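the two lines:
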Amino acid sequence: MKKILLIMVSIALLNIDSYAQQALWGGEQITSPEVKEDHSVTFRLQAPNAKEVKISGDWMPAEGWTPGSVAMTKDEKGLWSYTTAALSSDLYGYSFSVDGMKTTDPNNVYLIRDVASVTNVFMVSGGKADLYKVTKVPHGSVTRRWYNSPGNGMERRMTIYTPAGYETGKDKYPVLYLLHGMGGDEEAWIALGRTSQILDNLIAQGKAKPMIVVMTNGNVAQEAAPGESSLGMYKPTFQLPNTMDGKFEETFTDVIKFVESNYRVKADKADRAIAGLSMGGYHSLHISRYYPNTFDYVGLFSAAIMTDPKNTSKVYENFDSTLKSQMTNGYKLYWIGIGKADFLYKNVSDYRAKLDEIGMKYTYRESEGGHTWTNWRVYLSEFAPLLFK
Amino acid sequence: MKKILLIMVSIALLNIDSYAQQALWGGEQITSPEVKEDHSVTFRLQAPNAKEVKISGDWMPAEGWTPGSVAMTKDEKGLWSYTTAALSSDLYGYSFSVDGMKTTDPNNVYLIRDVASVTNVFMVSGGKADLYKVTKVPHGSVTRRWYNSPGNGMERRMTIYTPAGYETGKDKYPVLYLLHGMGGDEEAWIALGRTSQILDNLIAQGKAKPMIVVMTNGNVAQEAAPGESSLGMYKPTFQLPNTMDGKFEETFTDVIKFVESNYRVKADKADRAIAGLSMGGYHSLHISRYYPNTFDYVGLFSAAIMTDPKNTSKVYENFDSTLKSQMTNGYKLYWIGIGKADFLYKNVSDYRAKLDEIGMKYTYRESEGGHTWTNWRVYLSEFAPLLFK
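prediction for all of em together
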């Protein structure tokens, strides 16, 4: 007994003292968020001196340009709390506002960066988010790897998902190139998009074919995501030069060549897919027609399509002729998804009209909601099972 | 001109509206932290309603169990700021306290989790942190991969660094097994330890041999880091069962077997190193003597060594005899590093006395400071160049 006590004391010593020595890292004993069985969620924040604490979450309807928010209630110990109604299954983001200052939840270590903001996240199970969870199925590998892009004159970073069994087997795999939106980078789909979880789960369920997913960086001015390049830890910006002027489309062959000479892939049209969200949808549209006999599968998720014929960007040169080539060469799937409330809804409608006019077939998926990761995760979950059949 | 304007408007539209639709992600136009040429650093926080704002950073001396902190100054617009003296080159962490509530810096997207806390970080160049930066040198790849551990009856996750050229060449590489401390996991060394940057830079400078670095999860009760396992997004805890009772040591053969059958490695003693910090130092000490003819290089960084002979943990069985076997079998380097202010200083001194007594040679490195990542990054930077020579 005395010996057991000694061990416990030794361990406690390690615990307390290393806390003391790296005391900055201490955490409070509050649970937030607490996702309950009925899918309601309670948030808590200890802020005894605050006069007003609000919570803002992406499940709340936005009020024009202002995100929705709701006041939290303070108890006698200075603990503010708020409980939602039952939420539908999804990955959600939220932040607190303490006397007007936006802040993260100190009791939630799960945060995801989107452009220049970092937001706490949580998941509600029991529906579509079940695909976003890590489950006890065979897991693919996720690699951050650098490749040479002669077209951009730099080494660049990508994120690659290889399905379970890739490293140990001998099969060749099809490839999905999955592109981010404006302000995003090679971290966006793996973090906010839950790509590795969605693919692991769909493949394990037999709903999607095992495939490699290549998440490149579509900002050709960047070597890599903020903090991951030689620029160091700078403040990310939304808008970057040369992202929508054809440069990425032109140099995308560097990505394909790298993947096809460095991975065990089926290097043919039937085994190549390209899809992206927002700006990545624009990129997917244009890359697939720049190289009009290269991809059998194209996915445009809330695509930032600018159909105005006055657009002078080089990317629009030969738009109609290359699109017709793509149509004539044939493909298996041209998938368009958009939310009814998306600010790009009309652009996508106009583009569909253009496609209808030339007789180019596509599959159309109209969802609720707007220009959100909620939709893009759903689109990936629906698009991936249609590939490489 | 009109056409250019149209494009700009289109892009601005994308910008503003997607901000509106995913308005939660907006950022303020404040720069914080601002690292200046003279290595002083200015922090800023907009909190007009706050009465008292403090900053706490790990460059400040701690006051007993309380981390150091200093008051920030408010200007007429409600912007709080504080400028440090010139800081020595390092990776630093900090947090704000707003009217007593600890918070992150909303203008700094760079955060690292350590156990149950997430802390903003920044770097000051011009010294040792130059090794921690991403530089324009050939980059290794970093992969999160799952492996089967029959000894633990589960699939488990590891982080693997393969040096530049690994994928495209045919050479076999030596392996460093690099272990985290209590409360850490397979993310600790790559995030807080800056392992991939340190190795990329040391290898590019010709100071370290190209090597594979395997960062396992030493908490055998866990499949993976918090948020990365089937347990979902739970609140991490410091103390986990079975982390220091011999179970990890026993089952470490699963890790070695996996690496040596799945990577192009030199599978011999001369090409195996094991090192770890704190609890990982304890693990390295015991794993290297459990398998006393397996590692030519051992690194104990601020190792949590419990030399009390009354310790009854199974891990201490045959301590002396296996240590002597290790000594007799021979090795090239047994490296011990500890900070003068580390709470484990005496434990390490006692262990050195034990080694002296049996005539077991080691290299001893005593640094300033305590039980901190500042020291562990330095130890890795000094230890890696000594390997596989």
